[in-house]
Structures are given as structure tokens and as C-alpha cells.
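Fold this complex.
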Amino acid sequence: MSTETRTELIAPRRGEARPALGAPGSFRPDPRPAPLARMILAQARFETRLLLRNGEQLLLAIVIPALMLIAFSAEPIGTISGGGSRIDYYAPGVIGVAVLSTAFTSQAIATGFERRYSVLKRLGATPLPRWGLLAGKSLSILAVECVQLVLLIGIALAMGWSPHGDPLAVLLLLALGTAAFSGLALWLAGALRAEATLAVANFVFLIFIGVGGVVVPLDKFGHGAQSVLQFLPISALTDGLRDVLQHGAAMPWGPLGILAAWAVVAIAGAARFFRWE
Amino acid sequence: MQETEPAVEIAGLVKRYGEKTAVRGLDLVVDRGSLTAVLGPNGAGKTSTIECCEGYRTPDGGNVRVLGLDPVADAARLRPRIGVMLQSGGIYQSVRAMEMLRHVAGLYANPLDVDELAERLGLGSCGKTSFRRLSGGQQQRLSLALAVVGRPELVFLDEPTAGLDVQARHATWELIEQLRADGVTVVLTTHLLDEAERLADKVAIIDSGRVIAYDTPQRLADGTREQDSIRFDAPAGLDLTALSIAVAPHAKASEPVAGSYHVTGEITPDTLAATTAWCASLGLMPRNLQIEQRSLEDVFLDLTGRELR
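Structure:
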């Protein structure tokens, strides 16, 4: 403890009013929870603020996707398929990475360490119910995704991106992708130690970027590999986004179906294996 | 709200972790508005018992009611009414001290003023410091602030003064005393016997998963008054017969070390007078005269044994 703190503790500085909490009765019990909606919003705001302040998470969520977008679209590296301009190919893939980074990697790591430091346990003793805590987390993920999308779409548009298709289909893909990745993140963070979660979450992030149709089109892989890789949630997300945004497809039922299946399995797994402590 | 029922009512609590039984048939009743200190060696079952009351753990046997509610089944109704200070952790490492306090305060409809509370606990100057950069004592005090900020009826404090320096310990004690004075029921665990003696209305000593003594600190110590003693130094080899007769029948004299005399037993004003009168009759000045009264610590050691565990 610093010297200043110690001085204040013993005697408040001369002329300063003594805190009113010294008065008898100031701790008289009056325990009442805040309204539920206010608690959930407070939790969402709180988590969003912590996440946006965290350097590593910011790197993962915003800097890496933005750099990928700029680097791949401006320079003739990487191999694109299906015609159209480079940015039309890469923008949907990078949007998929943005969702992956926030809903899966960031969330798994943050939740793993919250468990390790008993934060989830401590919040469990407040009036905020557990499902409210999860709702707050989900809202916070959506908020960060909005920031990411605004930024990445802005950059892409500035680089000459011309998206096609139905915005509703895009929103549906993003929502199902977020649900699937969130479920996987909580499953992972609930089952493993914080350090193992950190390692696995980062490893999966890199692998998914490599083989999930983000940069390298799936049809560059062998037929056998491709038939497996297309069922990854990241491939379904990037495929679906490209179908709509690049090729103007109406409703990409195949990718939506794969994402929905992942969402159901992942959320069931999280519900089954998640531990609060 | 039933104000008459006890704040905590534990009957026959059993808690197992795999092969190991941490709590084996523990009974405890804590009155509303009282301050109870739970003492016990490490591994005695203190934290397990408290965590069953907080709803973190489901009992394997017995019954726990807190404010008349089942801590697990009625968690949603109970949790807003209790304050919890965990033994360690519970706070985001990167969060700033005041940010965390403000956030938890925001989960209650009528919280305490966070600035006054922080000032009161000496956290005023470290509000912008992240949790991991706070000193151990500051982390403890922030944790205490989180437990009380929602104006709870009942607080569970798990070793609230562990690792605090003297000033911070006194500030914490004053806050806990004020909580009690304002009608908050307090249950705290501690290893500090003087803390229990100073703060508690009642002390529960837990060992091997059971309550082995539960009374006021005064009565616990009084229960073993027959082992108090008067001690003084005088020339070695004095004849003790007259002194033994003078202090009989409730005490007896001895010279365990040459030149060091003990009158052991129930020490009354008469015993003391008889002892000094015996010295006076020999024309001796008793040096280092002192009365040894058994402290809560001696009682604790007698009850729980002296071996390390």
C-alpha cells in the first residue's frame, strides 16, 4: 500500500468532510436487485469496455482482419476464384474472420480466464442471474461485431467493394455463425483450463483462416479434403457470405443449414460441459 | 420476510468431494443481526460450509436455510439479499478498481455511494488502478467493498483481513463493526483469534467437518478458567507448603523452574491476596508478577490439538 493511501486511511485530510458512511445507520440493509434489463445492459457495457481495452483482443478482432482485407485485396498475393474483383472475393472472407475472432477466439479466452479468476463465481453471487450473464456476454459480442463490421465494410467500400444480395440473408448467416462460434467458445472454455483454452482458441483461429475458405478457396484443396472442409463452421460462413455478397444468391440454404447444425451441437455441448468455477 | 427466523440454520450438513468428506454432520444456527466468527484449522470445512450457505455447493446431506430460503433452490431470491467476499479472486484482472465497484453497485436498485465506500476503505487513491496492479491488501478491501455495496442483510466474509497490514486491518474491523451495529448479520471465517475475540458475538470452532464449540468468546475462555495461573519470580527453593495451603482448595502452588513460581487453578482476588501475603510474610518482593488468563487461542489449541496439518 502506498504512503498516501495509508495516511488517508488513518486520518482524512484536514478540511475534508468525513465520508457520510461513517454515520450510524448508513449500512442499514436494503437489498434490492436492479431491474433485469438494466443489469443485463450493464453487464454487456462492462464486458464490451473491457474487451475493447484489451490490446491482444483488439488485435485479433480488428487489426488482423483489417490488415488481411487491405493486404490481400491490394497486393496480388493469394489466389482467387470465381471471377470478379479481388475485394469482392476477400471482403466476405474477412467478415467471416471478424465473427470468428470475436464470437469464438476472444470469447473463449476471456471466459477461460474469468473462470480461472473466479469472476464467474463472484458474479454468481450478485442479483444478475446466470442466464443474464450469458445474455450480457452475447450482447457484448454483438456490439463488438457491429464495430468490426462498420470498420471493415468501410474499408472494403473505400477499396471499391460492391456487395450484392439480400441483407437479410447476410444477417442470418452472421447470427447463426455467431451462435455456433459462441457455443464452441463456451464449450471449450468450460471444459479446459484457461491456458489450454488460450492455446486451442488461437490454434483453431489460425487453422480456420488457413483451411476455412477465408483466403484460399476451398476448390484449391483436393476433392477429399474439400468434402470435409466445407462442413467446418468457418467454411459454411465464408461460403454463404460469398454466395450472397459476391454472387448475389437469394438464400444460401446449404451453408445456413450447416451453421444451424453447428449452433445446435455447440450450444448443447456448452450447456452440458460448461462449469462456472 | 420472516424476521424472527435465524439468519442461517444448518442441520446435519454433509459435503463430500469424491473420497474426501469435508463436512460431516455440521449444525449451526446464526441469529439475525449477530456477528459470528467461524474458526478452525485449515481443511476443517469452514469454506465448504460457507459455500453451501452461499449456494455455490449443493449439500450431500442435511439441511441449510439462509434467511429462511434454500440457497440452491431459492438462489434467485436469496442472492440479492446476501453479500459475498470470496477468499481470493472474483475480479477481472484488467478491470480498474472503481470500475468494478461501480459495475457491481449498478446491479442493485439502492446501492451504497461507491465513492464514499471507496474512501472509507482507503481505495480512493487507486480507483484507476487495474486489479492486478493493486496491492494484496487493496485487493482484499475492494473485495470487501463488493460484498457490502448492495446493502445486504447478511454478509459472508471469507478471511476478510488475511494479508492486511495493521492499518487496513483496523479499517476493516471498524467497517465490520459498523455493519453489525446497523443491523447486518455477519458471518466471517478467520485464523486470527484476536479478531474473533474483538468482533464476534459468537465463535464457532469447526474441526474435521463438525462444530466442536459454539459460544461467546468470553464463555468459551471461561469454560477453562481452572487452568489460569499467577506467575512470579523469587529466590529458588522456597517452601511451598504454606502457599499451597493458603491458595487451596481451588488452586495449587508449584515451582516448575527453579526461581519461577506458579499458582495454578481458579484465580480469584482471594488467591492473589493469599499469594502476595505469603510473599510478604517472607519479606519477599515477587518479581514479574503476572496473571495468566487463558485466551481464546489456548482454548482453540486445546480443542483442535497442536499438531500441524
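Chain A touches chain B through 48 residues (CB under 8 Å).
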